[in-house]
Amino acid sequence: MKSKLILAVATALITVFAVSMAFAMGGGNARKGKFLYRKNCRSCHGSSASDMSPADKTQAEWTALFSDTGKIKCSPDWTVNEKDLNDIFTYLHDYAKDSPSPAKCS
Known about the structure:
54% of the residues lie in helices and 0% in strands. It has 106 residues and is mainly α.
């Protein structure tokens, strides 16, 4: 029983680390991320949830937020896969308020 728990914890940590590294290293497609953000996120963020723009946070804040997506209130409702989520993160990160090209509007 104890070894199963240790294995489960180790697997969870490896998964979190791998996802965090993927987000930290970028590699996503910001253009596709903008499309996916508008398609999947704007339906709530802008009507029922708080309005949200990439320029609402710094690059470090977006990285911290996406390093543990389980802490994001709406994450259980997401229907995007990890690759699409990385594209959305890349869009938000690349157009953050402290980026070279902050978003003017979303």
